[in-house]
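Section 3.1: Structural characterization of target chains.
Under the original work plan, the team committed to producing a structural model for every single-chain target entering the pipeline before any wet-lab resources were allocated. The record below documents one such target. The sequence was received from the expression subgroup and is listed exactly as submitted; it comprises 429 residues.
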Amino acid sequence: MRLFAAALIPALHGCDHPSGLPGPHHPPYLPPRIGCPGRQIGRVSISRLRFSLSLFRGILTFANGSRIILGHYQCEKDIDSYLGLEYGLIGIEEATQLTARKYEDISTCCRTSRPDWRPRIYSTTNPGDIGHQWYFDKFILPHQCGTESSTRFIPARVDDNAFINPEYKSTLASRTGWQYAAWYQGQWNFPAGQYFKNFRPEIHVLPGSFNENIAVEWVASMDYGYTHPSVVLLGCFDHAGNLYVLDEHAERYWIPQRHAQAVKTMLARHLVYGSQDHLREALLADYPVPSTKREALWHVRRKRLLARFVAGTDMFSRESNGDSVAKQYRELGLILRPASMDRVSGWSAVLQRFGDPAAGIKPTLFIHKRCQHLLECLPYLQHDPDRPGDVLKTNINDEGVGGDDPADALRYLVATKALWAGQVKLRGL
């Protein structure tokens, strides 16, 4: 209702103009629910405008040919029915119920060929929900920093509404935690729906050089993709069992040969080798002629072999010819084994390793600042509302921004344990 009134002020002025609003299709209003705005909006009186209303189609048609399309969405895919048309003005209520991708989709329809009209989008929302972070980055942060250029944010709290009933204010004031901060105080600077609330960059991010001599075991993980990026993380454990993620490789639209070369380059930065074949290949490149030095380095650097290099099980799926992506990497000198794929237990393992610094529980997982894709990804991960304990699956957009692929690689790295082999003496009954 609040957006309906805000958007109709310029919309109705356009409908009152002889030439109307621009474009063959005029502003869609996309609320989760539809309200009646009343008869007087700003200085435009609906009663003096000639229009017809089709309740079934949700369209107001004015005498000059302008139309206002009223619609709603229950799921994001419902908005696809509005795409492909031209709208001079768009109004979206509860915009944080949309992902950034869907908001961008509907934004592409806001256009005109008329020089006397400026297309615009009006939106209202509350802090929280799935779109909290992108909305914060796009509208709130520029407002707070005084850097607004193409956007304008108008803050409003419940106390700003002189007509709201006091019972509703009391209801909001009785909320606790982030809901009180968001819904009653109108605050945006909080991790709404964030899965890793215990992730603290000032604690978990390694800012500078790292003493790799404390490493007792080197491990790596891979989340494979093509249109999605393939992400490889390299980490090590110390004597106390702390895990340090020290480097990453993340690229998309690459073939395995190119990925393998880049991964080997990443490993070489840390004098780590993916397999004995990889070590042999590196030594032969530096010492093509047999020598005692090459033999000595072979024994020394075997201690820098990866203890395990795990990857998602999709890499081990065999094609009709019996080949698999994992086999291709094996032939390139990188031996992979299947990672633990249970999402809930995997995310729980990551959550536990971050510890709880505020409660005095020390973390055992640290990430180097060079792992930019992983560090950018973690704060955006949210709880899956349909599966408690799981992270909501997100994909990158067409520009390669976003997605949870680095986090999946971290989950594989943390949750997959070392294989154990040993002898157990059996005793008779």
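The first strand starts at residue 28 and ends at 30.
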